[in-house]
Amino acid sequence: MRLLGWIIGAFMALTAPSLAAWPERPITAIVPFAAGGGTDGVARILADHLGRNLGQAVVIENRGGANGNIGAVAAARARPDGYSFFFTTGTTQAINPALYRSLPYDPLRDFAPVGRIGVFPLMLAVHPGVKAENIGAFITALKAEPGKYTFGHWSAVYLAAGKSFVRQIGAEVLDVPYRSSANTMTDLVAGRISFAIVDLTIGIPLARGNEVRPLAVTGAQRSALLPNLPTLQEAGLAGYDIAAWMGVYAPANTPAEALRGMGAALTRALVDPSVVDRLSTLGFEPMPGDAAELARFNAAEITRWQALITAADIKVE
């Protein structure tokens, strides 16, 4: 019997993944949104630094679609060998669980937290043809002409942010879903929709080119990148505070050595001045946190978004 136990133990030791020299080969970073957006931009900046720091390439794999659910499923089902990580946002980890009656993944059970990255402040922007020079005038226009204005969105956080805004001011608008940020902003610039809520990565260049008109930011504080732009709280929306946060996860049961190694490398990246400078050009604000902090934050965000989405009566077909 003892011999059998020794044989089984020896076999497991031989077949278990060895992480003594982790990483020994390239790492895959799954991003649940299309290339070119803010989430993808942050992931690529971090992947570049992480790859140089870890001595192995960190390869971005974009798995967009279904409000991030496709990428989340791919990440949850990836082999937990220390070579697959999930660079994602609150959309997949907190908002979708509140939006959808059933999900093919569990945001807490199916993932191991690695570390928090930071937040994208968001802005409310209108087409320049909209006759409202400030957020107060726009709110007045929305309330005065129910159903006239259209709101574009491409993922759950923007849908929820817009629906919450409209509900809180007591207006009626037509919401128009899109498949990507590029499609949404193309139609906003062309005037086919009236307004959108967009991260600063995409919104600031368009605003500088006078292709859209920013009216407010959605966080609790003004953005250092747009200090003259008021918050929606300043416009009278009490308690309105929505931003797109990012974190890194791994499939559940990923070896602890890989989780610690990636977490340490991530922390080093987020305090590196060159990385912080590159992220700031995207309008991204680093807020590093370890695995335990991300786990606590994620659980709290699920509760917050369930309450917010219920109050706003947001439904996804």
Task: Give an overview in words.
The protein has 317 residues and is of the alpha/beta class. It folds into 2 domains: 24-119 and 244-312, D-Maltodextrin-Binding Protein, domain 2; 122-217, 3-Layer(aba) Sandwich (D-Maltodextrin-Binding Protein, domain 2). It contains 11 helices and 11 strands. A 6-stranded mixed β-sheet has the order 2-1-3-10-4-11, sandwiched between helices. Helix 6 links the parallel strand 6 and strand 7. Helix 2 (38-54) crosses helix 9, helix 4 (90-99) runs parallel beside helix 11 and helix 6 crosses helix 11. The longest helix is centred in the last third of the chain and has 22 residues, at 291-312. It is globular and about 65 Å long.
Series of H and E elements: HEHEHEHEEHEHEHEHEEHHEH
Number of separate structural domains: 2
> Order of strands side by side in the largest beta sheet?
2-1-3-10-4-11
Residue-averaged pLDDT? 91
| Global outline | globular
Instruction: Report the sheet with the most strands, covering strand number, pairing sense and barrel closure.
Output: 6 strands, mixed
**How helix-rich are the residues, as a percent range?**
40-55%
CATH level 1 class label of the largest domain: Alpha Beta
If classified by CATH, what would the architecture of the largest domain be? 3-Layer(aba) Sandwich
Strand-pairing-aware structural class: alpha/beta
Q: Which regions contain 5 or more consecutive residues with pLDDT less than 50?
A: 1-18
- Spatial gap, N to C terminus: 57 Å
CATH topology of the largest domain: D-Maltodextrin-Binding Protein, domain 2
Any idea what the radius of gyration is? 21 Å
The CATH homologous superfamily of the largest domain is called Bordetella uptake gene, domain 1
Instruction: Tell me the total number of β-strands.
Output: 11
Q: β content, as a range?
A: 15-25%
Number of helices: 11
